[in-house]
C-alpha cells in the first residue's frame, strides 16, 4: 500500500502516535493543495480562488494548479506560489516584540517564498537581508525579490559562517534549514527516493552547524525562527532542545489554533493529515540578554557612491531613499539604512542592494528591471505599451514582433502591471527583458 515510500520511513511513521501513523502516510499519497500569496503592492491577478489560508494575510488556496509560467501577472510579481504551511511564519511574525525598523536576515532564502512574505510583513520598514549560499540559486532569489518590488531588500550569497562578521546585528533571523524533505513526499516522488535514516542524521548535524554559525549575528533579545519541511524529531524538537542547551536561549510561546503543537510542546507542525499543507515545522527562540549598540566595522573599502538625483529627475523616488552607484549600476536604497548598506556590502558577497534602477553608460544611464517592477518609483511621463496576453508572453519569451510605440525606452505592461523594458527603434524594438528571466519553454505547448 505504501510501497512508494522508503520502508524505514514507513516503519518510523507507523510507530509514531504523534504523527498519526498511517493517517499521515495516506495523506502523503493524496493530491497536493495549491496556494499563493498575493503582493498587496500590485494589482490583483485573476486566479481561481477556492478559500483563504487562515493563518496568513493575502494568502489563498486555488481550485487547481494553473500554468504559472504562462501567466504574465506571475512574472510581474503580483503573487507568489507558496506552500501554505510555510506561510505560518506570518502568524509568528505578528507576535514578536521587534523594533519598528527591524534588521532581518532570511538565511536560507532561495527561491524567495519566506523573503517575499517577510518583505510584505515589514511594509517597507526596516532592512531585509536575504541570503543563499549556492550562487546559482541566489540569482533566482535576486530575481524574485526584484519582482516583489521593495527597496529595503538586500540579497547576499554567503556561507552562514560569514555572518560572524555582523556580530549582534540582526533583530530577527529566519532559518528555514535544509532538511530531509519528508514534507515534500506528497508532491515529489523523487524526494522519497533520496530519503534515508543516515540522511536524516546528516541533515540534523548540518542544521546544528548552520544555526550555531549564525547565532553571534543575532542581537541579544532578538529572535531566531527555525523551520523545516520534515516530520522527524531529530531535525525538529531534538535540534531545538540542543540549540537551547548550547545558547541558553528561551523557547518563545506562540498562540495558534490551526497547527499541532510539537512533541513536548516544542514548536508547531502543519501536518497534511490535519490541515491543507505539505508538511512544515516551526519553532521560535529568543537570545538571552539586553540589546547591544551595533558596531559597524568595514572589512573592505566600500565603493558605493552617491548618484545625483538631478540625473533621475523624471522619476519619482521617495525622499526616504538615496540613489547610490555601485560599479556601473544604480540602486535606490533607504536613507536610514545607508550606512548599514555600506556595512553589509563591505562584509558580504552582495548581489542586490535595494532596487536596481539603472546602468550608467557614457551617454547617461539605461533603466533596469527593478525600476519597472518597484511600484514606489514612478514616472507618469514614461511611454507605456499595454500588451495582449499573446504579446506579453512573447515579450517574456524574449521575442520581438511588430509593435507601435514611441522611439526610445518603453515600459511593457499587462493588465496595467509593468513587466519590463524595450528600446523602440521606430521600425523594430530591442527586447530588454533579462535573458536569464525569460520563459524557456515553447509557448505553443
Give descriptors for this structure.
445 residues, alpha+beta, Rossmann fold, Nuclear Transport Factor 2, Chain: A, ten-stranded mixed β-sheet, five-stranded antiparallel β-sheet, 12 helices, 23 strands, 24% helix, 25% strand, globular
How many distinct domains? 3
- What is the overall shape? globular
Gyration radius over CA: 23 Å
CATH topology of the largest domain: Rossmann fold
CATH superfamily of the largest domain: Vaccinia Virus protein VP39
Any low-confidence stretches, pLDDT <50, length ≥5? none
Instruction: State the share of residues found in helices, binned by percent.
Output: 10-25%
Number of helices: 12
What's the CATH class label of the largest domain?
Alpha Beta
Most strands sheet:
10 strands, mixed
User: What is the number of strand segments?
Assistant: 23
Structural category: alpha+beta
How far apart the termini lie comes to 35 Å
> Could you report the average pLDDT, rounded to the nearest whole number?
92
CATH architecture of the largest domain, by name, is 3-Layer(aba) Sandwich
Beta fraction of the residues?
25-35%
Amino acid at each position: 500500500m505504501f510501497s512508494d515510500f522508503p520502508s524505514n520511513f514507513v516503519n518510523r511513521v507507523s510507530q509514531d502516535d504523534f504523527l498519526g501513523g498511517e493517517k499521515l502516510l495516506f495523506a502523503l499519497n493524496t493530491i497536493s493543495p495549491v496556494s499563493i500569496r498575493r503582493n498587496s503592492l500590485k494589482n490583483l491577478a485573476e486566479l481561481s480562488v477556492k478559500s483563504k489560508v487562515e493563518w496568513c494575510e493575502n494568502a489563498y488556496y486555488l481550485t487547481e494548479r494553473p500554468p504559472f509560467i504562462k501567466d504574465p501577472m506571475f512574472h510581474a510579481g503580483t503573487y507568489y506560489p507558496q506552500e501554505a504551511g510555510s506561510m505560518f511564519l506570518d502568524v509568528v511574525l505578528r507576535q514578536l516584540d521587534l523594533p519598528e525598523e527591524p534588521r532581518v536576515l532570511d538565511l536560507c532564502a532561495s527561491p524567495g517564498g519566506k523573503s517575499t512574505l517577510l518583505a510584505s510583513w515589514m511594509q517597507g520598514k526596516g532592512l531585509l537581508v536575504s541570503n543563499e549560499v549556492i550562487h546559482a540559486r541566489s540569482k533566482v532569489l535576486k530575481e524574485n525579490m526584484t519582482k516583489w518590488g521593495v527597496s529595503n531588500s538586500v540579497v547576499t550569497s554567503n556561507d552562514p559562517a560569514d555572518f560572524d562578521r555582523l556580530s549582534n546585528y540582526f533583530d530577527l533571523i529566519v532559518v528555514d534549514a535544509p532538511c530531509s524533505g519528508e514534507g515534500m513526499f506528497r508532491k515529489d516522488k523523487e524526494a522519497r527516493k533520496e530519503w534515508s535514516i543516515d540522511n536524516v542524521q546528516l541533515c540534523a548535524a548540518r542544521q546544528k552547524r548552520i544555526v550555531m554559525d549564525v547565532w553571534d549575528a543575532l542581537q541579544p533579545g532578538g529572535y531566531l525562527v527555525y523551520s523545516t519541511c520534515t516530520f522527524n524529531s531529530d531535525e525538529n524538537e531534538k535540534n531545538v532542545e540542543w540549540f537551547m542547551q548550547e545558547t541558553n536561549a528561551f523557547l518563545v510561546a506562540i498562540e495558534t489554533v490551526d497547527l499541532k503543537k510539537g512533541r513536548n510542546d516544542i514548536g508547531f507542525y502543519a501536518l497534511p493529515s490535519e490541515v491543507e499543507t505539505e508538511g512544515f515545522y516551526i519553532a521560535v527562540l529568543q537570545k538571552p540578554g539586553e540589546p547591544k549598540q551595533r558596531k559597524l566595522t568595514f572589512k573592505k573599502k566600500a565603493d558605493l557612491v552617491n548618484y545625483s538625483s538631478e540625473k533621475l529627475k523624471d522619476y519619482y523616488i521617495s525622499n526616504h531613499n538615496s540613489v547610490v552607484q555601485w560599479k556601473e549600476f544604480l540602486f535606490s536604497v533607504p536613507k536610514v539604512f545607508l550606512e548599514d548598506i555600506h556595512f553589509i556590502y563591505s562584509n558580504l558577497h552582495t548581489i542586490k542592494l535595494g532596487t536596481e534602477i539603472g546602468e550608467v553608460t557614457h551617454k547617461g544611464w539605461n533603466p533596469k528591471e527593478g525600476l519597472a517592477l518597484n511600484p514606489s518609483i514612478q514616472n507618469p511621463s514614461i511611454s507605456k505599451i499595454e500588451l495582449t496576453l499573446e504579446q506579453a508572453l512573447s515579450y517574456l519569451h524574449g521575442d520581438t514582433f511588430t509593435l507601435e510605440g514611441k522611439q526610445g525606452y518603453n515600459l511593457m505592461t499587462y493588465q496595467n502591471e509593468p513587466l519590463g523594458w524595450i528600446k523602440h527603434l521606430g521600425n523594430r524594438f530591442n527586447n530588454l527583458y533579462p535573458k536569464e528571466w525569460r520563459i524557456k519553454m515553447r509557448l505553443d505547448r
